[in-house]
Amino acid sequence: MAGSNYSYQDPTDEQPLGELFSELSGNLQQLLKKEVELAKVEATEQAKRAGKAGAMFGATAVMGFFGLMLLFFAAAWGLATVIPTGLAFLAVGLLCLVIAGIFLISAKKEVAGIRPPQQTVQTLKQDVQVAQTSLKRGLQSEPDTYGKGR
């Protein structure tokens, strides 16, 4: 390949330890960049869910406020006039509180579904295992390399 920056190295050639660690460092940097990108994608998804739950909590607060206002108004008007009109306001106020309760239950379910980035955590665990295995293999074969040069 003309103009390619990639140079082939025969796997039977021994690379100095410094080059191996330099290559490992570069590979780990690339790996970490990819992990950060994955974490951003997963965090964005979770942030959207959290935003939806926040909107539901907001709706709960608004409906709860209106419900309390109507209940207070109905109680005051009902006591002042002692006629069925006050009971109508009381029923409307209770209905608003029931709606607020439904929003609250929905919001709690949505919040309970928010999880940390599972895929990122899993791949990070796998990456650590691969790195540990590679280092163990490298350290086990390294004394033989040093023994040959002396």
Which class best fits the helix and strand makeup?
A: mainly alpha
Order of helices and strands: HHH
Give the integer mean of the pLDDT values.
76
Shape: rod-shaped
Poorly predicted runs: none
Largest sheet: none
Distance between the termini: 39 Å
In DSSP terms (H or I, runs of 4 or more residues), the helix count works out at 3
Gyration radius, rounded: 32 Å
- Beta strand %: under 5%
Give the beta-strand count: 0
Which percent bin holds the helix content?
over 70%
Describe the structure.
Helix 1 runs antiparallel to helix 2 and helix 1 runs antiparallel to helix 3. The protein has a domain of 97 residues. The protein has 150 residues and is an all-alpha fold. The chain starts with 16 loop residues before the first helix and ends with a helix. The longest helix is centred in the N-terminal third of the chain and has 65 residues.
